[in-house]
Design brief:
Layout lengths: L4 H7 L10 H9 L4 E4 L6 H11 L3 E5 L6 H10 L4 E3 L6 H12 L5 E4 L1 H4 L2 H10 L2 E6 L14 H4 L3 H5 L5 E5 L4 H10 L6 E4 L7 E7 L3 H12 L5 E4 L3 H13 L4 E4 L5 H13 L4 E4 L14 E4 L6 H8 L9 E7 L1 H13 L4 H18 L5 H8 L12 H4 L4 E3 L1 H13 L6 H9 L4 H6 L15 H13 L3 E3 L5 E3 L4 H5 L5 E3 L24 H18 L9 H10 L4 H4 L7 H23 L2
Parallel strand pairs: 1-6, 1-7, 2-4, 2-5, 3-4, 5-6, 8-13, 9-11, 9-12, 10-11, 12-13
Antiparallel strand pairs: 14-17, 15-16
Helix pairs in contact: 2-3, 15-16, 15-22, 16-17, 19-20, 20-22, 24-25, 24-27
Length: about 600
């Protein structure tokens, strides 16, 4: 009798119970039905197709958008004893022939391919006529959305799988899809009849923090040193130049930092990606080119040095932190120039007016999140159609509620300055006007005689920039292509006094960004930290011997459980979550010996 999904979960992957909707999804696909699965990063999406692929006759074909990380996924599965391979352009001809023979003979459980490879006519013919198929898994299915942040045109063509392989179940998976994107996935992949499985988007182990620019790089350095010294993290920057500058700055301050962007030589970029994947103390400074498919569970923080493009992009990128379920942080600093730049980007695109409206709506939602004075997690989840009844208690606005002030009069002065000067000047000049700062330019333009000249001299420059930033964020002002500000109809109630405007005060710490309580420890209190570090060292040695990332041996969460329960025989070691039969056989004796040695040394000290 073949094993059950529960038995595969335990013996192969070392987990004792399914989480959330996993079991229901597995049962649906096992029965031959189609499924659309939305689960947060780290929520266990992969098991939803891996277990059915192992149990159904034939090979499970996994469509994955990034070739660079397929091998790591395959390595992790092979460590667990799963028959897995990838088929892509990095393989030499003989290896590719061997993989195709294994697939034809039914000797693989899972075969990973990029959509470009899968959609080639000869590949589709090969799959249809020569390969027994268990299922198709379409990972990162939000790439099908033409209005999304990670659109891949090849994904639109994946509808052919439903047309050509009608009897083969399909499962589309993503961690990022607002309701409109969920509908697009079903429509464009011809999966309207698929059963939807929507898990919570909440990542309670992630602490969300957003601040405004003082010196952003110094704030980032303070944050890393205070909360994440010698830990793995990702720093996202808007431009290639800023990536290189940030990496150089951090490296100069003793942080093990690397750069990654599309302008680098391919071999350098990939070498840095491999170093990041295989180390546990490297900070990767990157553009969003370092994006989908990052399958590294021990990333302890994701930092944004600029505003991301949308809430979806932000959620997707921050979701790369804390995939192992241990505490992690999402840290962002942004400034007035970011708001102006994104507003300009929306207006200057050649897209249709309908597309621009959708982008404006996305940007408004992002700015509302960034300027929030209430629980950030509630706002984030609300965007994805999920309600969180109580404030989370694990974001900066919960831990350190921001001060607000009645900014109606200040806003009226700022808006009047925009109007009286002709709605064509940028923030720096407008602040000079409000401060009454003499200049030949102001004199020549006749602005020194305006009633707004010097009307805001009692308010500091940084505070005025904060006012203008928040007026832009709220849509009362917009910026033209040169950075000049003009008013929108939304500002009329504020100007007339019909609407009171409350803004928050920017609070920027000397280092670390916005002041907030120190992050939770990454390890539970019952973990022997000395033993945990010894186990990490053993894991690192084993991984280096095999040329694989350390986390494919065991996740940090599994090591933490070992360091808490301290199993000193194989039977007890097998009870640790994440220890399946294959890993028990490969590594059980080494880890049990390390634990016993540590206990003996500790007892004798």
């Amino acid at each position: 009798m073949p094993p059950t999904p529960q038995q595969v979960l335990e013996t192969t992957f070392g987990y004792h119970a399914f989480r959330g909707e996993q079991q229901a999804v597995v049962e649906r696909v096992m029965a031959g039905g189609d499924a659309i699965v939305l689960m947060p990063t780290g929520g266990g999406k992969s098991l939803c197709y891996q277990i059915p692929a192992m149990l159904r006759p034939g090979v499970g074909i996994v469509v994955s958008p990034l070739i660079a990380l397929m091998q790591d996924q395959v390595d992790a599965l092979r460590q667990a004893g799963v028959r897995a391979a990838c088929l892509n352009s990095t393989l030499d001809a003989e290896t590719a022939r061997q993989v195709t023979r294994q697939a034809e003979a039914g000797e693989l459980d899972l075969l990973y391919m990029a959509p470009e490879r899968l959609l080639q006519a000869h590949t589709l013919d090969w799959l249809e006529h020569r390969v027994p198929l268990a299922l198709f898994a379409i990972d990162e299915a939000h790439c099908v959305s033409q209005w999304g942040h990670d659109f891949r045109p090849e994904y639109l063509q994946l509808a052919v799988l439903g047309e050509r392989f009608g009897g083969v179940p399909r499962i589309a998976l993503t961690a990022t899809a607002a309701p409109v994107t969920q509908a697009e996935i079903a429509q464009r992949l011809l999966m309207e009849d698929a059963q939807k499985f929507l898990a919570s988007f909440d990542r309670p182990n992630i602490r969300y923090r957003v601040g405004q620019h003082g010196d952003a790089r110094k704030a980032l350095l303070g944050f890393i040193r205070s909360d994440h010294d010698k830990q793995s993290g990702i720093v996202y920057c808007m431009t290639r130049k800023k990536v290189e500058q940030t990496a150089a700055f951090l490296s100069g301050q003793g942080v093990n930092a690397l750069a990654y962007h599309a302008g680098m030589a391919g071999e350098d970029r990939e070498a840095n990606a491999r170093l990041f994947q295989r180390s546990d103390d490297t900070v990767m400074c990157a553009t969003v080119a370092f994006g989908m498919g990052i399958d590294k569970p021990d990333v302890r923080f994701v930092a944004h040095m600029n505003l991301p493009r949308s809430v979806e992009a932000y959620y997707q990128e921050t979701g790369r932190a804390g995939r192992d379920g241990l505490p992690a942080q999402a840290w962002m600093h942004f400034g007035l120039s970011d708001v102006i730049q994104l507003r300009q980007w929306v207006e200057q695109t050649d897209a249709s007016e309908a597309h621009k409206r959708a982008e404006r709506s996305r940007l408004d939602a992002l700015l509302a999140y960034c300027e929030a004075v209430t629980c950030r997690r509630q706002l984030l989840l609300d965007y994805f159609g999920e309600a969180l009844e109580e404030p989370c208690g694990n974001c900066d606005t919960c831990l350190n509620p921001p001060d607000t002030w009645d900014a109606t009069e200040a806003a009226q002065k700022a808006l009047s300055a925009v109007y009286r000067t002709g709605q064509r000047f940028g923030v720096t000049y407008l602040v000079d006007v409000l401060h009454g700062k003499d200049s030949e330019r102001a004199e020549g333009l006749g602005h020194t005689s305006l009633n707004v000249w010097g009307a805001g001299s009692d308010v500091g420059q940084a505070a005025w920039r904060s006012v203008f930033r928040q007026l832009l964020a709220k849509g009362l002002l917009v910026a033209d292509e040169h950075g000049g500000l003009r008013m929108t109809p939304a500002c009329k109630p504020v100007l007339t006094g019909a609407q009171r405007l409350e803004l928050h005060k920017d609070v920027v710490a000397k280092s670390g960004g916005t002041k907030v309580k120190k992050a939770k420890k990454a390890l539970p209190g019952n973990v022997d930290e000395g033993l945990f570090e010894a186990l990490k060292s053993l894991r690192r040695d084993l991984a280096e011997d095999q040329g694989v990332p350390a986390y494919v041996i065991f996740h940090d969460a599994t090591l933490a459980e070992m360091a808490a329960h301290k199993p000193t025989d194989l039977q007890a070691f097998a009870e640790i979550s994440g220890v399946g039969a294959s890993k028990l056989d490969k590594y059980g004796e080494d880890f049990v010996r390390e634990i016993a040695n540590h206990e003996e040394e500790f007892a004798g000290s």
